[in-house]
Amino acid sequence: MSKRIITMIVLICTATTLLWTVGLIITIQDQFFYEASSIKRPKPTTSNIQKNNELSIVALGDSLTRGTGDETGKGYVGYVVDELKKRTNQHIQFTNLAIKGQRSAQLISQLKQKEVQRQLKEADIILMTIGGNDLFRGGEALRDLSTTQLEKEKEKFVQQLRTIFQLVRTVNNDAPVFYIALYNPFNDLDNGKETSAVVRSWNYAASEVAADYKSIICVPTYDLFELQVNDYLYTDKFHPNKEGYKRIGERVASLITLTKGEK
C-alpha cells in the first residue's frame, strides 16, 4: 500500500473522530448544562395570592354585634379588628351580618341563606352574639321573673343555640367561633340580684352547648359589667357604650391566637 493511501486513511479517521467528539460534547451540554431559566414554572393564581394574604372575619348575631350604642360606630368587632391589625400584616376582610333585634330563631333562618353560607365558608374567624333578645324580650322579662317561664325560655334558647352551632359547623368546620356571652345591664336595679342569677344561668347553659363543638369558645362578659355598670352602658341603659364595647373587644381579641400562616 502506498504511503499516499495510508496518509489519506489516517486523515479520514482523524476527521471522523473529531466530528464524533464534537457531537458528543454538544449532546452532553444539551442534556446536563442547559439554563434553569428556560424551564417555565406555573405562576400562582391571583385568587390564591389574595387568600394567602387575607384574614377573613365574619360576624353574626344581634345589635351588640352591629355596635348599637357605640358613638364611634365600631362596636366590639371594630376593637377586635384594631387589636388584630397590631399582630398581623395580613389584610383583614371583615363582614358584619348581624341584624338589630335578632333572636336565635331568626338567626337560624339567616344561616340557611346561600349567601350567608358562602360568607361563612370563607371565614377564618367567626364572631357571634345572640340570646340577649331571647332573654330580655325588650324588657318584658323584667316584669315577669317567674322561674317556670324563664326555664322554658332557656330550654328553648339552648335548643336553638345548638342548632345555630350545628349550622355553622356544617358550613365551616375549622374556623374558631367566638360566642360572646350575656352581661346584665340591669344589675343596679332593685331586682338586680334576681336578673343576675338568670343571666349567669343562661351563660352556663350556653357554655355547656359550646363545649360540645370543636373550637367554639364561649367568651364571658358578665364580669366586665358587674361593677359600675352604668359607666359602660349607652343612654338606653341596655347596650354598651364605647368603653363597654372596647372592654368586650379587648377580651375577645385576647383569646384569638393567630397561626403562622395568619401572622
TrEMBL record:
<dbReference type="InterPro" id="IPR013830">
    <property type="entry name" value="SGNH_hydro"/>
</dbReference>
<dbReference type="InterPro" id="IPR051532">
    <property type="entry name" value="Ester_Hydrolysis_Enzymes"/>
</dbReference>
<dbReference type="InterPro" id="IPR036514">
    <property type="entry name" value="SGNH_hydro_sf"/>
</dbReference>
<protein>
    <submittedName>
        <fullName>Lysophospholipase L1-like esterase</fullName>
    </submittedName>
</protein>
<dbReference type="GO" id="GO:0004622">
    <property type="term" value="F:phosphatidylcholine lysophospholipase activity"/>
</dbReference>
<feature type="domain" description="SGNH hydrolase-type esterase">
    <location>
        <begin position="59"/>
        <end position="247"/>
    </location>
</feature>
<dbReference type="Pfam" id="PF13472">
    <property type="entry name" value="Lipase_GDSL_2"/>
</dbReference>
